[in-house]
Amino acid sequence: MEENQKVLTRNWEKVDPKEITSYRKVGGYEVLQRVLQMNPKDVIAEVSKSGLKGRGGGGFLTGKKWELTASSNVDEKYFICNLDESEPGTYKDRLLAENNPHQLIEGIIIGSYAVGAKKAFLYVNGNFHLAQFLLERAIRQAYENHFLGEGIMGSEYSLEFELFIGAGAYICGEETALINSLEGNRGEPRKRPPYTSESGLFGKPTVVNNAETISSITWILEHGGTKYSQIGESGETGTKIFCVDGIVKNPGAYEVPMGTSVNDIIYKYAGGIVDGAEPWFAQIGGSAGVLVPFGTFGAIPAYPRASYVPIGSGAILVISKNQDIKELMLSWANFFQRESCGKCVPCREGTFRLRAIIERLKEGTFSKNDKEDLENLIWTLDNTTFCAFGKFSVIALKDVLRYGFCEELK
Ligand SMILES: Cc1cc2nc3c(=O)[nH]c(=O)nc-3n(C[C@H](O)[C@H](O)[C@H](O)COP(=O)(O)O)c2cc1C
Ligand code: SF4
């Protein structure tokens, strides 16, 4: 992507993530200064105009989410940035924090102001040590420079800000489990409704936004929602970071306009396929992602989940024809068994049994009964679990069956 078209990564390498002065040199916190003179409703209107959808996987409209919390008359509200990011192969949120922590913090302050929150939390995965270090430092600098705390930049708006270090559990990326964890409870999802916009942290209206979503906010307020809405295609606006891995020449994180095909992400951005390798399929969205066979790489990842290629976390793993599919299936099953929070029986038991069956498949002791059980388990996990984790655990397996990628399961 051309340098001047970038939104999220535009100042990577220009900014020293350790120094607020360096961020100030590229116009940092100037958007906040202007926003503090705007009516919060106008700030939300600008975000709504942009068409920005949440980058945490669900693709919910950010302006709409902010509007829901802002419209509540309750005085105590919270704004939470979700930087739990535990989906295998996904590291864009961590990179955003490591390369430009103040861009994220400025976005959180703007979001908090827009919805009327007096306290913001940044929930960071406990395994991200460099990001933690840089964020802690950046928050301290923001306080010292009056971008946080009492009467921000001489305005009447005050915001308290807390960095919360999670333990690195996958389920704590789910917003209600994250809220439970923040409250000091077990990181398990809550029943919805009520939705977090009306009853979230400590039972108060709360916005939870992904770190990439928030990192787009300063650009949108600087250039206007309309300009942002003109980037992208097919009803999907703005830019998105994809993390590309597997048999590509240049694995890495690439910011691309929405509406870019899998093919272009692999060949134009990640340098194409390594010499001598033959692509079989790509998995889009981490271990919870769909499989896209090689012949259909022209597909365009999009929100929502019902689309042919849901974006999910934005990871793209390109798999070679030499890959042992059973090994890959076992790695998915291991991941979901380990990360199941254990709250509901179908997932706690189901992921365990699923893993055992796939292990037998890999070892060559897979029976006819196993095949039947596998189909039943997939249905159970897909349809009966308490939260979306159950569904996530069988997305790729269903595609293995659909495309006949595993001989024994045909
Ligand atoms: C099992 C599970 C794991 C999730 N993990 C993450 C995560 O690591 N980061 C994230 O931002 N959202 C994650 N989400 C989505 C969040 O629940 C929530 O929708 C998101 O943080 C909202 O932000 P957005 O509107 O900016 O996308 C997860 C959801 C589920 C069901
Ligand atoms: S589906 Fe899994 S992760 Fe979700 S509540 Fe049930 S046990 Fe926990």
Short key terms for the protein model shown above:
410 residues, alpha/beta, Rossmann fold, Ubiquitin-like (UB roll), de novo design (two linked rop proteins), 3 domains, four-stranded parallel beta sheet, 40% helix, binds flavin mononucleotide
Give structural notes:
- It contains 17 helices and eleven strands.
- The chain has 410 residues and is an alpha/beta fold.
- The protein folds into three domains: 227 residues, Rossmann fold (3-Layer(aba) Sandwich), CATH 3.40.50.11540; 85 residues, Roll (Ubiquitin-like (UB roll)); 85 residues, Up-down Bundle (de novo design (two linked rop proteins)), CATH 1.20.1440.230.
- The model has no long low-confidence stretch (mean pLDDT 97).
- The chain binds flavin mononucleotide and iron/sulfur cluster.
- The site of flavin mononucleotide (FMN) has 23 residues, from strand 4 and helix 16.
- Iron/sulfur cluster (SF4) binds next to helix 14 and helix 16.
